[in-house]
Amino acid sequence: MSQVRLRVSALCIKDGEVLLVEHKSFAPDDPKLPPSYWILPGGVVERGETLEAAVQREMMEETGLECSVGNLLFIKELLYPHPGVSAQGTLHHSVSLGFFCEVTGGRMITGKDPEYPDDKQVIITVSWIPLHDIDRYDLYPPFLSDYIRTKSDAGLENAVPEFFASPE
């Protein structure tokens, strides 16, 4: 891999539920990872695209929902294999910016990633998950479950951005 990918994601909480997308694992041959996991809607920023436009495009592609984009919540770096391994970051290296978002319209669907053909799609389903049930799901990245639980009570509108690195 020659580039670090810049990604965006949308954290939407409404009526005590969080919007999540179930994805197939990005490393299906790694026995340490589950075969699927739940993530925030989001994806790679395209050249010339603003961060706000990227969040809105990814939300529409993956969920069929429109959103307003609020403040930056977190910055997450992902290296795979993880730091400390001889080939760290050779399979994947990305920096993801997570934004507070509010759904403003649209109709929820299980979307597609346009960069993949139909037989290689990674999105399994899209769902509003009750906040009190998120511990029953494999959320990725690992900090996400605790982050949602603690920050949703404090109010995400005024959250100070935090940095999360790849696990050692």
TrEMBL record:
Coiled coil: none
One GO MF term attached to the UniProt entry: hydrolase activity
Obligatory cofactor(s): Mg(2+)
Record keywords: Hydrolase
Occurrences of domain Nudix hydrolase (ranges): 3-157
Domain of life, source organism: Bacteria
InterPro entries cross-referenced by the UniProt entry: Nudix_hydrolase, NUDIX_hydrolase-like_dom_sf, NUDIX_hydrolase_CS, NUDIX_hydrolase_dom
SUPFAM superfamilies: Nudix
Any single Pfam family the record assigns to this protein: NUDIX
Assigned protein family: Belongs to the Nudix hydrolase family.
Protein name in UniProt: NUDIX hydrolase
